[in-house]
Amino acid sequence: MDLETMTVAPPEETEEEKREHIVRILNDFAGQPGSLIQILHIVQQVYGHLPLDMQRMVADRLDLPLSEVVGVSSFYSLFTTQPRGEHTIRVCLGTACYVRGGEKICKRLGEKLGVEVGETTADRKFTFEVMRCMGACGLAPAMMIDETVLRQVNPDRVGGILAKYQ
Ligand code: FES
Question: 94 CB less than 6 Å from ligand 1?
Protein backbone atom coordinates (compact mmCIF):
# COMPACT_ATOMS: atom_id res chain seq x y z
CA MET A 1 0.00 0.00 0.00
CA ASP A 2 1.34 3.49 -0.71
CA LEU A 3 0.33 6.91 0.52
CA GLU A 4 -1.86 7.68 -2.46
CA THR A 5 -4.03 4.60 -1.93
CA MET A 6 -4.65 5.38 1.72
CA THR A 7 -7.60 7.37 2.78
CA VAL A 8 -7.05 10.31 5.08
CA ALA A 9 -9.38 10.54 8.02
CA PRO A 10 -12.17 13.07 7.57
CA PRO A 11 -11.92 15.80 10.21
CA GLU A 12 -15.20 14.73 11.83
CA GLU A 13 -13.78 11.38 12.95
CA THR A 14 -14.25 10.67 16.65
CA GLU A 15 -11.26 9.78 18.84
CA GLU A 16 -12.24 6.12 18.67
CA GLU A 17 -12.57 6.23 14.87
CA LYS A 18 -9.18 7.91 14.57
CA ARG A 19 -7.60 5.18 16.65
CA GLU A 20 -9.27 2.45 14.59
CA HIS A 21 -8.08 4.18 11.44
CA ILE A 22 -4.47 4.05 12.64
CA VAL A 23 -4.81 0.44 13.82
CA ARG A 24 -5.96 -0.55 10.31
CA ILE A 25 -2.97 1.24 8.77
CA LEU A 26 -0.58 -0.35 11.25
CA ASN A 27 -1.96 -3.81 10.54
CA ASP A 28 -0.96 -3.31 6.91
CA PHE A 29 2.55 -2.25 7.88
CA ALA A 30 3.19 -4.51 10.91
CA GLY A 31 6.84 -5.50 11.15
CA GLN A 32 7.97 -3.12 8.39
CA PRO A 33 10.27 -0.64 10.18
CA GLY A 34 11.13 1.02 6.85
CA SER A 35 7.59 2.42 6.76
CA LEU A 36 8.06 4.59 9.83
CA ILE A 37 8.06 8.02 8.18
CA GLN A 38 5.14 7.10 5.94
CA ILE A 39 3.11 5.97 8.94
CA LEU A 40 3.98 9.00 11.07
CA HIS A 41 2.83 11.16 8.18
CA ILE A 42 -0.55 9.40 8.19
CA VAL A 43 -0.88 9.67 11.98
CA GLN A 44 -0.25 13.40 11.71
CA GLN A 45 -2.85 13.74 8.97
CA VAL A 46 -5.41 11.97 11.15
CA TYR A 47 -4.61 13.72 14.47
CA GLY A 48 -3.09 16.98 13.30
CA HIS A 49 0.03 16.14 15.34
CA LEU A 50 1.82 13.06 16.72
CA PRO A 51 0.42 12.15 20.15
CA LEU A 52 2.88 10.18 22.30
CA ASP A 53 0.50 7.24 22.76
CA MET A 54 0.25 6.95 18.96
CA GLN A 55 4.04 7.03 18.64
CA ARG A 56 4.17 4.25 21.21
CA MET A 57 1.64 2.20 19.24
CA VAL A 58 3.62 2.73 16.02
CA ALA A 59 6.83 1.62 17.76
CA ASP A 60 5.14 -1.54 19.05
CA ARG A 61 3.67 -2.52 15.70
CA LEU A 62 6.87 -1.87 13.76
CA ASP A 63 9.06 -3.59 16.36
CA LEU A 64 11.07 -0.42 16.91
CA PRO A 65 12.22 1.15 20.17
CA LEU A 66 10.06 4.12 21.16
CA SER A 67 13.22 6.22 21.33
CA GLU A 68 13.74 5.71 17.59
CA VAL A 69 10.19 6.79 16.74
CA VAL A 70 10.43 9.83 19.02
CA GLY A 71 13.83 10.63 17.50
CA VAL A 72 12.39 10.66 13.98
CA SER A 73 9.27 12.64 14.94
CA SER A 74 11.36 15.32 16.63
CA PHE A 75 14.06 15.45 13.95
CA TYR A 76 11.91 16.25 10.90
CA SER A 77 10.38 19.70 10.87
CA LEU A 78 7.29 18.44 9.01
CA PHE A 79 6.27 16.57 12.16
CA THR A 80 4.83 18.21 15.23
CA THR A 81 4.23 16.55 18.56
CA GLN A 82 2.06 19.36 19.90
CA PRO A 83 -1.54 20.00 18.87
CA ARG A 84 -1.71 22.79 16.31
CA GLY A 85 -4.31 25.47 15.84
CA GLU A 86 -6.80 25.58 13.01
CA HIS A 87 -4.83 28.52 11.59
CA THR A 88 -1.09 29.10 11.65
CA ILE A 89 0.13 32.68 12.03
CA ARG A 90 3.74 33.38 11.09
CA VAL A 91 5.27 36.80 11.63
CA CYS A 92 8.34 37.56 9.55
CA LEU A 93 11.37 38.59 11.58
CA GLY A 94 13.77 38.78 8.67
CA THR A 95 15.90 41.92 8.58
CA ALA A 96 13.54 44.18 6.60
CA CYS A 97 10.49 43.18 8.61
CA TYR A 98 12.34 43.37 11.90
CA VAL A 99 13.55 46.90 11.16
CA ARG A 100 10.06 48.00 10.09
CA GLY A 101 8.19 46.73 13.11
CA GLY A 102 7.96 42.94 13.01
CA GLU A 103 8.60 42.79 16.73
CA LYS A 104 5.72 45.16 17.44
CA ILE A 105 3.42 42.88 15.47
CA CYS A 106 4.64 39.93 17.53
CA LYS A 107 4.05 41.80 20.77
CA ARG A 108 0.53 42.80 19.76
CA LEU A 109 -0.31 39.30 18.52
CA GLY A 110 0.96 37.80 21.75
CA GLU A 111 -1.30 40.15 23.72
CA LYS A 112 -4.34 39.47 21.55
CA LEU A 113 -3.87 35.70 21.43
CA GLY A 114 -2.65 35.28 24.99
CA VAL A 115 0.19 32.98 23.92
CA GLU A 116 3.92 33.18 23.32
CA VAL A 117 5.66 32.47 20.02
CA GLY A 118 5.59 28.72 19.38
CA GLU A 119 2.35 28.19 21.29
CA THR A 120 -1.22 27.37 20.31
CA THR A 121 -4.23 29.16 21.77
CA ALA A 122 -6.32 27.23 24.30
CA ASP A 123 -9.26 27.09 21.87
CA ARG A 124 -6.94 25.54 19.24
CA LYS A 125 -7.80 28.33 16.83
CA PHE A 126 -4.30 29.74 16.22
CA THR A 127 -0.70 28.56 16.35
CA PHE A 128 1.67 31.52 16.62
CA GLU A 129 5.13 31.27 15.03
CA VAL A 130 7.84 33.49 13.60
CA MET A 131 9.80 32.95 10.44
CA ARG A 132 12.66 34.39 8.41
CA CYS A 133 12.21 36.31 5.16
CA MET A 134 9.12 35.27 3.21
CA GLY A 135 10.10 37.23 0.11
CA ALA A 136 7.86 40.26 0.65
CA CYS A 137 10.61 42.60 1.94
CA GLY A 138 9.53 45.50 -0.30
CA LEU A 139 6.28 45.69 1.61
CA ALA A 140 7.55 44.89 5.07
CA PRO A 141 6.52 44.20 7.75
CA ALA A 142 4.81 41.05 6.62
CA MET A 143 3.09 38.08 8.18
CA MET A 144 1.27 35.01 6.99
CA ILE A 145 -1.95 33.42 8.09
CA ASP A 146 -2.00 29.91 6.66
CA GLU A 147 -1.02 30.47 3.00
CA THR A 148 -2.08 34.12 2.83
CA VAL A 149 0.70 36.73 2.92
CA LEU A 150 -0.27 40.02 4.57
CA ARG A 151 1.97 42.98 3.73
CA GLN A 152 2.62 46.33 5.43
CA VAL A 153 0.93 45.07 8.54
CA ASN A 154 0.04 47.76 11.03
CA PRO A 155 0.18 46.41 14.61
CA ASP A 156 -2.98 48.39 15.39
CA ARG A 157 -4.85 46.34 12.79
CA VAL A 158 -3.88 42.97 14.18
CA GLY A 159 -7.13 42.62 16.13
CA GLY A 160 -9.20 43.21 12.99
CA ILE A 161 -7.11 40.72 11.03
CA LEU A 162 -7.64 38.03 13.67
CA ALA A 163 -11.36 38.72 13.78
CA LYS A 164 -11.68 37.55 10.17
CA TYR A 165 -10.43 34.13 11.22
CA GLN A 166 -12.57 33.70 14.33
S1 FES B 1 12.40 40.23 5.69
FE2 FES B 1 10.28 39.92 5.92
S3 FES B 1 9.62 39.47 3.93
FE4 FES B 1 11.77 39.67 3.73
Answer: yes
